[in-house]
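Let us walk through a complete example step by step. Step one is to write down the protein sequence. Step two is to encode the small molecule, adenosine-5'-diphosphate, as a SMILES string so that its atoms and bonds are unambiguous. Step three, shown after the inputs, is the structure prediction itself.
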Amino acid sequence: MSSKNCLIVLFGGQSAEHYVSCVSARHVIEAANPELYDVIPVGIDRNGDWHLAEKAIEDLGTGDLGNALEPAGPMWNPMTELGNTSAQKTVVFPLLHGPLGEDGTIQGLLEVMDVPYIGSGVLGSALAMDKIATKEILTHHKIPQASYRSVDSKLFEHLNTDGLNSLFSELFEELGSTIFVKPANLGSSVGVSKAYDHESLHKALEMAFSYDEWAVVEEAIEGREIELSVLGDLVPQVSTPGEIRPMGDFYDYAEKYQNDSAELIVDPDIEAEIVSDLQQLSASAFLALRCSGMARVDFFLHSERGPILNEVNTIPGFTPISMYPRLWEQVGLSYSALVDRLVDIALERHSRKRRNTAI
Ligand SMILES: Nc1ncnc2c1ncn2[C@@H]1O[C@H](COP(=O)(O)OP(=O)(O)O)[C@@H](O)[C@H]1O
Ligand SMILES: [Mg+2]
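Step three: the predicted structure of the complex.
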């Protein structure tokens, strides 16, 4: 019997962030210590089928992204494979971004199969994924955030021209002359846009509604974009901050993944007192949103209002240049040691939960 743990890395998925997930998975698989883990790459293709993806990962390893982005390989049935846990301990690392991966759905499947997994559980994943639910929880906990309104596509679709114009006027009046529009449940800036007038707001909402039934509309914040990494469970550790300096209008999909133009600065120049506020707010948001294992907490730092929380990502990017692992490296936790910590936290939480349910 092997004393190694079995680490199933789940990647790909059906969301608009499929590509990003494949890139993160490649790096986690490369970095996982082969003396500690038998790594099993499992890719979910864009149709939602699961595959044993050893070949896809080999292709990714050679840098041949063109061939490897569709995780092909023999079909892998989670119900039979996960139900058949051997003498080896099995931990699943869901490296899936966006809906059907980061939103509690896969986590629910893993709960039902009683398999330990890295990251937040069903509730934490769902709350943090939904920008409206996140904002409502942050309001309750008095964590500073941008002013916002949620808009329901079902209501929007029934408005006539007058109704639309009065909604748009109301939103600009309430939120200012420039506003951000986002689908409630997505990430990587997909479907996010800025609006300045009725026409651009109409377009922005239609775009957001092509991804989700709900949209968030919020005031534009002029501030630095600051991110912190959180690691742990009941008593989370928080890293030093990092800063994103987008080159363009805002930190959009192209800047995140296509042209690599945004600057990522680890430990930027921020007053010690503000760093401490950012760290406290990150831990409070992590706990308020019932997160576990890991999260990247993103803020705007406004020159007068101070930190304004933007969002919490429960499955942050995991490429070596991604902010989440880089911030831990800065404090001496290497990428592969970070994977070990996440596995330990997952096992610990799983055994704690079992103890609690057994009472
Ligand atoms: N209220 C806002 N004010 C200013 N910039 C914003 C605002 N909301 C979003 N942005 C810009 O858009 C980017 C993506 O928005 P975000 O809410 O982080 O969505 P996602 O979940 O897709 O990453 C942010 O990193 C930031 O550059
Ligand atoms: Mg973001």
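Step four is interpretation. The mean pLDDT is 90.
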